[in-house]
Write a structure and sequence with these properties.
8 helices; Rossmann fold; binds adenosine-5'-diphosphate; alpha/beta
Length: 217
Amino acid sequence: MSDSTPHSAGSVPAEPYTTVLLFGAPGAGKGTQGAILGRIPGFYHCACGDVFRSIDITSRLGKIFYEYSSRGELVPDEVTVEMWAEAIHAHTILSDFKPTKDLLILDGIPRTVAQAGLMHKYIDVQKIVHLKCENEQAMFERLRRRALKQNRFDDADENVIRNRWRVYEEETEPVLGCYDADLIFNVDSIGSPAQVLHDILDVVVPIQDKLFAGEID
Ligand code: ADP
């Protein structure tokens, strides 16, 4: 991605993207499930953290990302949404994301109430899959294992993990209040990956079928 300041002009779609949000605390398994869904034709998975990580770390945006994420903090809202909008728009141009055929599975965005507001013009949220886990310790363990496997600087440090958890509770959980309660579907994230996937498919397949049949406008 270029070093220039992202701008929204040109990246606002004529029709908002038909979307399902994958929602949950760090370590809940959004990335794992999103990546599986993203391999099924008819679904397009976009993880905001991956978009950030694809930026050159020496660029202006890359430096902003490193500065915030290494403390376990969120990147400021406007920068985040503009960067995300540009990235997803680029995928529509490349045609690997076809908004009239592919159900967009968003993971890690919106992550604040302000982001949810800024994203209204971009996404039409059909459902929110909330990967829930009451067991904080189990999530910490998952994050630590992932940090070792993926060489992630933000999850290697216990304090950074704790901070990420606090930020989730304070800034991200309230996002659920921005949407109708009947759009929210809770899934127990501590189940086996196959069971969690099964529960998610129950929600997303009927939406993708409708989109494909042209029944969602
Ligand atoms: P995880 O899924 O483990 O919570 P991500 O890979 O989604 O982590 O994000 C890593 C880091 O990228 C976050 O800690 C944050 O600094 C930044 N980030 C990702 N998504 C957003 C977002 N929507 N808003 C602000 N910052 C974000």
